[in-house]
Specification:
557 residues; Jelly Rolls; 2 domains; 8-stranded parallel barrel; globular; hydrolase
Length: 557
């Protein structure tokens, strides 16, 4: 791996995208419900979400908790009491960020307690419930019913307990059918006084639905659950308000100190042909400081491992462009001072890193690819859920091997960085000492809440600045925050802005000027820069994004 970049580069940088045009379509399935998420988040900020009384202790065992999601206190057919719902912070248990809630009516097959299944909450991005409990062993039962899907594959999600996936690709309709009680139980161990149960969408076009949750001691003291496997979720950090987690990313000093330029323009290079411009890596303009090669995919022979080679499409389009040609081009870009990293995932690429074995394979395989092609680091663009603990393990293993010059970037979707309790946000905070930059995708998302609690529509300077402010006010250093936008209208399904608006958003955050209707709570002169999806799309428009944004970065304070 080339070390010529040490004098110029920083150990932080990242992007987001989608195979075959990942960025264009990936988040559209979420955009259909983004308005709901934004509305609910707004209610959370304003305090309008109902706070039900604490409850669920129906036996002498005070560690038993039963929750009727989005419902009121309810006594079931076996005289067990299910507590009315509440947000975490109103008592020793409660829900985190809601992505919607609702109710149904009519009979529910497979239960004598239809009413318990009639109300539900919707979750995504690792959000769910947190319980303050004495340390020990418990059993967790999640109760669900499908009232929306009309066939398999329409709603698919993962369930996590304290960051570990206990149920993967759970499809209620496929497992149980419509309007049928569908319960799953898992063992869990509490250490540190908290238990978190999170939900992450993993297919289909709707959020995870939860009707009720029961937590009972593993010895059965006060419980009626059923058994099945186990695994943990995000992080036991509370609620949805932007309270910073107390871990101020340990950079050495105001200088990024990672070897990269003070300001970064990051772009993605396509290893596929999607009707944008196919080009050899060596043709990428030097206005780009970091180039993310998109994408590395899962090695089917090595769970959690990453595989990569030049695609047949690109090779054919460029007259036989080979792996050796790419490696030579990587070195050529590095010699001029451009970092080249491998982006993992995209909309269609799902590399699962949810066990220690997978984390080890991820680190080993990435290191091998870095040796083969000379890559300077990795971009995490996994859009189907991540395990913060296991991905942290993988990235720290890689950092131990490569050293401080390793570039680590992330490209989460907008929704993934709304709250500090989400998987992506937790990962960013957990690895802040080795993280280069988080380039959130501020597009394909619909309307979202900013750090001030107001709802902003995508495609505006207010949207970009107000959502970046969430990260800036909640634990990431300004030099770890970048603004990700599409290079052309064709590069995304929504959220395109003229590159001059990207410059305005950078000015807003760095100096407080050009903010439109948004008033930032502070200024962040060290804001790191911008990212675009993608270099290939930018090429179709004469590199207008790069030619507009790169010079502006040099004018920031």
């Amino acid at each position: 791996m080339s070390r010529r970049l040490a004098s110029r580069f920083s150990a932080r940088s990242r992007h987001t995208d989608r195979q075959r045009d990942p960025h264009r379509y990936a988040s559209l399935r979420r955009a259909s419900v983004a308005a709901v998420a934004a509305t609910v988040a707004g209610l959370l900020v304003s305090g309008a979400i109902l706070s039900a009384p604490q409850g669920g202790d129906d036996t002498a065992d005070s560690t038993t908790v039963r929750v009727n999601a989005n419902g009121e206190d309810l006594t079931d057919s076996t005289d067990m009491v299910w507590a009315g719902d509440q947000p975490y912070g109103s008592g020793p248990w409660g829900h985190g960020t809601l992505f919607g809630s609702g109710s149904m009516s009519g009979p529910v097959t497979g239960t004598d307690d239809d009413e318990l299944y009639h109300s539900y909450n919707l979750f995504a991005a690792g959000s769910g419930y947190t319980f303050d409990l004495p340390d020990g062993d418990y059993e967790v039962t999640v109760k669900t019913v499908e009232d929306w899907a009309t066939g398999p594959g329409q709603r698919v999600f993962d369930v996590n307990v304290d960051g570990e996936t206990v149920l993967s690709e759970f499809d209620i309709f496929a497992e149980c059918g419509a309007s049928t009680a569908c319960d799953r139980s898992f063992p869990a161990s509490v250490s540190g006084g908290h238990l978190s149960i999170g939900f992450t969408t993993n297919g289909g076009s709707n959020y995870a639905t939860v009707s009720a949750i029961a937590i009972t001691p593993a010895d059965g003291g006060g419980g009626d659950p059923d058994p099945t496997p186990t695994d943990p979720t995000d992080d036991p950090t509370p609620t949805d308000d932007p309270t910073p987690t107390d871990d101020p990313t340990p950079t050495d000093d105001p200088d990024p100190g990672d070897g990269l330029p003070e300001r970064l323009l990051t772009g993605y290079w396509h290893n596929f042909d999607n009707n944008s411009t196919v080009l050899p890596l060596a043709d990428v303009p030097d206005s780009y400081d970091v180039v993310a090669v998109a994408f590395g995919t899962e090695d089917v022979q090595r769970p959690g491992g990453v595989d990569f080679s030049v695609s047949d499409e690109v090779s054919d389009s460029l007259g036989g462009y080979s792996d050796a040609d790419l490696a030579a081009d990587v070195e050529q870009l590095q010699e001029r001072g451009t970092a080249v990293i491998l982006s993992i995932g995209g909309e269609r690429g799902n590399v699962r890193v949810d066990t220690q074995e997978r984390a080890d394979n991820f680190a080993d395989s990435l290191y091998e690819l870095m040796q083969q092609y000379g890559f300077d680091g990795v971009d995490i663009d996994l859009e189907h859920g991540i395990s913060p603990a296991h991905m942290e393990s993988a990235l720290r293993q890689l950092a131990d091997r490569v050293g401080p010059e390793l570039v680590i970037t992330m490209a989460p979707q907008t929704l993934d960085m709304q709250f500090t309790t989400s998987d992506y946000f937790q990962l960013a905070l957990n690895i802040s000492d080795i993280l280069t930059v988080v380039n959130t995708q501020y597009y394909n998302s619909g309307s979202m809440n900013g750090c001030d609690g107001n709802v902003y529509a995508q495609g505006s300077v207010e949207f970009i600045a107000a959502l970046a402010c969430i990260q800036l006010e909640n634990g990431l250093d300004p030099d770890q925050v970048g603004l990700g936008l599409p290079a052309t209208p064709s590069a995304a399904g929504g959220g395109y802005v003229n590159p001059t608006v990207v410059n305005d958003a950078l000015d807003c955050l760095a100096t407080g000027d050009e903010c439109g209707a948004f008033s930032p709570p502070d200024t962040y002169p060290e804001i790191r820069g911008a990212m675009t999806w993608s270099i290939n799309w930018d090429a179709t428009n004469g590199y207008n994004f790069a030619e507009t944004v790169a010079p502006h970065l040099t004018t920031l304070p």
